[in-house]
């Protein structure tokens, strides 16, 4: 567009925002999918051994999915900023970094899937610890939660949405 502010002659704020939105959903999404695969394999095995393991296995297996939810929310908020009048280069850069924050901390979903897999196996062997192992699975979530909060705060700070 004529008169649109650009960075280095190529990237407008809107393009930077789209890149940030893509990083948020792609990195967190791929990581969540991998974490879900790892935990899902253990859940299927535990359920196959004893159907009573299904409920607790399902809860633990689903935990790595939250990272993609964080990425999805941040990605949507960035797109809403673009749809609501567009992004300046400054807002586009902040959106890019917000997408990186939530996307890269979302890699924790892979480790969360590994912890969930071990917890599913432990709970299948000893039903009395089902609630306790959930704490182990939540711990890798903290990194993603911090990235999500920082991303939201950054977007709010410059009025992206």
Strand order of the largest sheet: 1-2
Instruction: Provide the CATH top-level class.
Output: Mainly Alpha
Oligomer: single chain
Query: CATH superfamily assignment?
Result: lithium bound rotor ring of v- atpase
The radius of gyration over CA amounts to: 19 Å
Please render the helix and strand layout as text.
Layout: E1 6-7, E2 11-12, H1 13-49, H2 54-62, H3 66-83, H4 89-105, H5 108-125, H6 130-138, H7 141-157
Antiparallel strand pairs: 1-2
Helix pairs in contact: 1-2, 1-3, 1-4, 1-5, 2-5, 3-4, 3-7, 4-7, 5-6
Give a nutshell description of this structure.
With 161 residues, the protein is mainly α. It has helices at 13-49, 54-62, 66-83, 89-105, 108-125, 130-138, 141-157, and strands at 6-7, 11-12.
């Amino acid at each position: 567009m004529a008169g649109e502010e650009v960075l280095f002659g190529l990237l407008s704020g809107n393009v930077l925002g789209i890149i940030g939105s893509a990083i948020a959903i792609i990195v967190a999404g791929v990581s969540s999918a991998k974490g879900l695969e790892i935990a899902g394999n253990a859940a299927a095995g535990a359920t196959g051994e004893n159907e009573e393991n299904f409920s607790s296995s399902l809860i633990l297996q689903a935990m790595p999915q939250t990272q993609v939810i964080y990425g999805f929310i941040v990605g949507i908020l960035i797109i809403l900023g673009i749809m609501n009048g567009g992004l300046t280069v400054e807002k586009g850069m902040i959106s890019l970094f917000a997408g990186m924050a939530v996307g890269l901390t979302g890699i924790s979903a892979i480790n969360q899937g590994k912890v969930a897999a071990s917890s599913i196996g432990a709970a299948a062997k000893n039903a009395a610890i089902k609630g306790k192992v959930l704490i182990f699975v939540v711990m890798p979530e903290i990194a993603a939660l911090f990235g999500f909060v920082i991303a939201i705060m950054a977007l709010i700070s410059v009025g992206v949405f």
